[in-house]
Amino acid sequence: MTTITNNELVSFANELADAARTVILPFWRQPIEVESKMEHDRPIAESPVTVADRKAEEVMRKLIEERYPSHGIYGEEFGQVRTDA
After folding, report:
1. Is the pTM here over 0.90, yes or no?
2. How does residue 49 score in pLDDT terms, banded at 50, 70 and 90?
3. Residue 51 burial (10 A CB sphere; 0-12, 13-18, 19+)
4. What are phi and psi of 81, to 5 degrees?
5. pLDDT at 1 (0 to 100)
């Protein structure tokens, strides 16, 4: 198993944020549909979600899968993978 440094993780977190910004920015200050989803395990079950939320998670998940394919992912919009990682 390869050891990942804190600096590498911080750098990757910045890459994830940059990628999310790229897909979210076109929606900034634009009319956007907000859907309500129900999450019964939360104190307030109703939770808003937009296409920007989904696109941000999609791009970040893709980068995580490419860079760290054995790592688990806990996502708000698309669930979890490899929770035992």
Report:
1. no
2. very high
3. middle
4. -135, 145
5. 60
Q: How many CA atoms lie within 13 A of 84 on its CB side?
A: 0
Burial letters 3-31, b for 16+ CB under 10 A, else e:
eeeeeeeeeeeeebeebbeebbeeeeeee
- Given the structure tokens 């939320």, which residue do they identify? 53
Q: How far apart are CA 11 and CA 42, in angstroms?
A: 31
Query: In terms of Cα–Cα distance, which of 58, 57, 83, 59 is closest to 70?
Result: 83
Give the pair of three-digit tokens for residue 49: 């979600």
User: What does the DSSP assignment read for the chain?
Assistant: -----HHHHHHHHHHHHHHHHHHHGGGTTS----EEEE-TTSSS-EEEE-HHHHHHHHHHHHHHHHH-TTS-EEETTTEEE-TT-
